[in-house]
Amino acid sequence: MENTIKVERAILNITQDDLAKRIGVSRQTINSIEANRYAPSTVLALKLSDVFNKPVNDFFKLSNDD
């Protein structure tokens, strides 16, 4: 899975720590998601959707490996 979380954060001008606090996870979790080392749960993806005010499909995409 690929994502544009880093880009979405830049648009909102927030740090990994800021985003983590908004959705109730650690900064390391955000870092792992951005690096495609961790696929978030549905609940976490929906929390990100609320922060970015966009549908989940706008910032998460399936890759050819999925």
Task: Describe this entry's structure for a reader.
This is Putative transcriptional regulator. This protein is mainly alpha-helical and 66 residues long. The chain has a single domain, classed as Orthogonal Bundle (434 Repressor (Amino-terminal Domain)). Helix content is 53%, strand content 6%. A two-stranded antiparallel ribbon has the order 1-2. Helix 2 crosses helix 3. The longest helix has 11 residues. The protein is globular and about 30 Å long. It starts with a strand and ends in a 5-residue tail after the last strand. The mean pLDDT is 96.
Tell me briefly what this model is.
With 66 residues, the protein is mainly alpha-helical.
CATH topology: the name is: 434 Repressor (Amino-terminal Domain)
Strand content: 5-15%
Question: How confident is the prediction overall: mean pLDDT?
Answer: 96
Order of helices and strands: EHHHHE
Structural class: mainly alpha
**What percent of the residues sit in helical stretches (DSSP H or I)?**
40-55%
Shape: globular
CATH class: Mainly Alpha
Helices, by number, come to 4
Task: State the total count of DSSP E strands.
Answer: 2
Strands in their spatial order, largest beta sheet: 1-2
Q: Rg, please?
A: 11 Å
Instruction: Name the CATH superfamily classification.
Output: lambda repressor-like DNA-binding domains
Uncertain stretches:
none
Largest sheet: 2 strands, antiparallel
- What's the structural domain tally? 1
**Alpha-carbon distance between the two ends:** 6 Å
Protein name: Putative transcriptional regulator
Domain HTH cro/C1-type: 5-59
GO molecular function, one term: DNA binding
Organism: Winogradskyella sediminis
